[in-house]
Design a protein that fits this description.
This protein folds into 3 domains: about 5-40, no CATH class; about 50-295 and about 495-510, Aldehyde Dehydrogenase, Chain A, domain 1 (3-Layer(aba) Sandwich), CATH 3.40.605; about 300-485, Aldehyde Dehydrogenase, Chain A, domain 2. The chain is built from 17 helices and 24 strands. The strands form 7 sheets. A 7-stranded mixed sheet has the order 16-17-18-15-14-20-21, with helices on both faces. A 6-stranded mixed sheet has the order 11-10-9-12-13-23, sandwiched between helices. A 3-stranded mixed sheet has the order 3-7-6, with no helix packed on it. 1,4-dihydronicotinamide adenine dinucleotide (NAI) binds near residues 251, 254, 269 and 270.
Length: about 525
């Protein structure tokens, strides 16, 4: 008998398309009464298809090798606190083996290879990353806690884009620097943080390799899994052995790289504290150094800004990736006339952010990366309260296990408060006011950092006037946290020096004299 209701029809191309699919569940049953807001049915990513090995070794000279001391440390899922795997801990002997492999590969293969051949390897790597993007996104989310929609839609596309972008430059270096003869620096030591594990690896590896350098890379101790998966991709791409070596471990492993006498360049992204230590220990060695450190960016909303858009941008600027972003807009400066409206919009909007299982495609805010980072966020928020600020937080329930912090903002903050001066690296915004553009500038520039800033206004002239006077390496206007491989990124003052991305990112890996 013929069914009465047709639930699917044949499209003109012959594929089955749902005719009524979205309304198959009655509207009232899809809406749970969650603080009066919309809630979605769970939509977890399929993690079972991507099993994680119980142990991860070091990647030296094209092979996975057991660490010299035979020691391993656990890597956990910060959303569940469950151990995912054991990661090899590299000591000075392992780092020495990695540097020797990189030096051999530089002298015998990579440094001599015609640039267009190097480019082909990079293109191949970029394409394999695209093919495995889903798997890499799932692993990134499980190991680091960031929502799958960010690892899938932001991190991975940018990772591939960086490899493609610098692959394109490999055989065009002499056009990048007219009149110069760019030559590689040699062996680069690269130390990266846990907030964008694969993306930071791509930012560092792609330009270094394009310019003919070989690399010893150290991922952060809480997020090493995807870097080691990348090592397998290098094997698959046939990258000559020793061109990239990956040593895992914590600060001591990083220090062994920094202090190795046969390293020509160190590129570091992480805390200002460790950046200063590295700068001190490298002083006088003649090694090249670039540092990408913390930030305390101001997002500045003028009275003439489109307020709904501005609030969306501010939300993206601070709650994106749980605020684990060096360029996060962690200070909001609002012109007095719109202060009350902006705060109300913020309060309403954060109630709709979904916090929870990072593998759920609906999740906006995932897990804080580690217990240590959660403690740091809590301590800094408490200092704000002790100094007289008021905390506004969402009322959502947080999972019982794992490391979580609800989206929050502090009002009544003054510029002397620690929350207005120190990097919080969590989903917590400090809100302050200003009256005139001059006052906004003075306040925005009043931190030890100078990485990024945001301007929200209807007037183009105001954007240019402000941008010229803001001490920040990256300035977004009427948007925030937008990235492109062609656009250089880096800071002033205690945010470090040197640029990554674009042509300046190439210059950081070439001798141009
Ligand atoms: P961290 O600076 O200790 O870690 C970053 C990387 O440096 C990791 O790979 C780590 O193993 C390595 N490292 C640590 N000590 C080292 C040493 N002495 N020599 C060489 N390498 C070393 O950062 P941590 O402790 O994970 O986070 C602390 C704070 O730093 C955060 O709360 C945040 O404010 C800031 N941070 C900023 C980042 C950025 O992107 N600018 C990234 C990570 C943290
Ligand atoms: Mg982990």
């Amino acid at each position: 008998m013929k069914a009465k209701t047709q639930v699917a029809k044949i499209s003109t191309k012959g594929a089955l398309v749902p005719a009524l699919a979205p309304t198959a569940i009655p509207l009232k049953d899809r809406r749970l009464n969650f603080g009066g807001k919309w809630e979605y049915a769970p939509s977890p990513e399929d993690a079972k298809s991507y099993p994680i090995a119980l142990r991860h070794e070091l990647f030296i000279n094209g092979k996975f090798v057991v660490p010299a001391a035979g020691t391993y440390f656990p890597s956990i899922n910060p959303a569940t606190e469950q151990q995912l795997t054991e990661i090899a801990e590299a000591n000075a002997a392992d780092v020495d083996a990695a540097v020797k492999a990189a030096r051999r590969a530089y002298d015998r293969v990579w440094g001599k290879m015609p640039a267009r051949e190097r480019g082909k390897y990079l293109y191949r790597i970029a394409r394999i990353i695209q093919e495995k993007a889903r798997e890499l996104a799932v692993l990134e989310t499980i190991d680091g806690g960031k929502p799958i929609k960010e690892s899938r839609d932001v991190d991975l596309p940018l990772v591939a884009a960086h490899f493609f972008y610098y692959a394109g430059w490999a055989d065009k270096l002499k056009y990048a620097f007219p009149g110069k003869t760019p030559r590689p620096l040699g062996v680069a030591g690269q130390i990266i943080p846990w907030n964008f594990p694969l993306l930071m690896a791509a930012w560092k590896l792609a330009p270094a390799l394009a310019c003919g350098n070989t690399v010893v890379l150290k991922p952060a101790e809480t997020t090493s899994i995807t870097a080691l998966r990348l090592a397998q991709i290098f094997q698959e791409a046939g990258l000559p052995e020793g061109v990239v070596n990956i040593v895992t471990g914590a600060g001591a492993t990083g220090a062994a790289i920094v202090n190795h006498p046969d390293i020509n360049k160190i590129a570091f992204t992480g805390s200002t504290e460790v950046g200063k230590l590295i700068a001190r220990s490298m002083a006088g060695t003649g090694k090249h150094l670039t540092l990408e450190l913390g930030g305390k960016a101001a997002n500045i909303i003028f009275e003439d800004a489109p307020l709904d858009q501005a609030v969306e941008g501010v939300i993206a600027g601070i709650y994106f990736n749980q605020g684990h972003v060096c360029c996060a807009g962690s200070r909001l400066l609002v012109q007095e006339g719109v202060y009350a409206r902006v705060v109300k919009k913020l309060r309403d909007r954060i109630q709709t952010l979904r916090v929870g299982n990072p593998l759920d495609k609906n999740t906006d805010i995932g897990a804080i990366n580690s217990a240590g980072q959660l403690a740091r966020i809590r301590e800094l928020v408490q200092s704000g309260l002790d100094e007289g600020a008021t905390l506004q937080q969402t009322q959502c329930a947080l999972p019982a296990r794992g490391f979580w912090y609800p989206p929050s903002f502090l009002t009544g903050v003054t510029h002397a408060h620690r929350v207005a001066q120190e990097e919080i690296f969590g989903p917590v915004l400090s809100v302050m006011t200003f009256r005139t553009p001059e006052e906004a500038l003075e306040r925005a520039n009043n931190t030890p950092y100078g990485l990024s800033a945001g301007i929200w206004t209807d007037k183009g002239s105001k954007i240019f006037k402000m941008a010229a006077k803001l001490n920040a390496g990256v300035i977004w206007a009427n948007c925030y946290n937008k990235f492109d491989p062609a656009s250089p990124f880096g800071g002033y003052k205690e945010s470090g020096f040197g640029r990554e991305g674009g042509l300046p990112g190439l210059a950081a890996y070439c001798r141009l004299d």
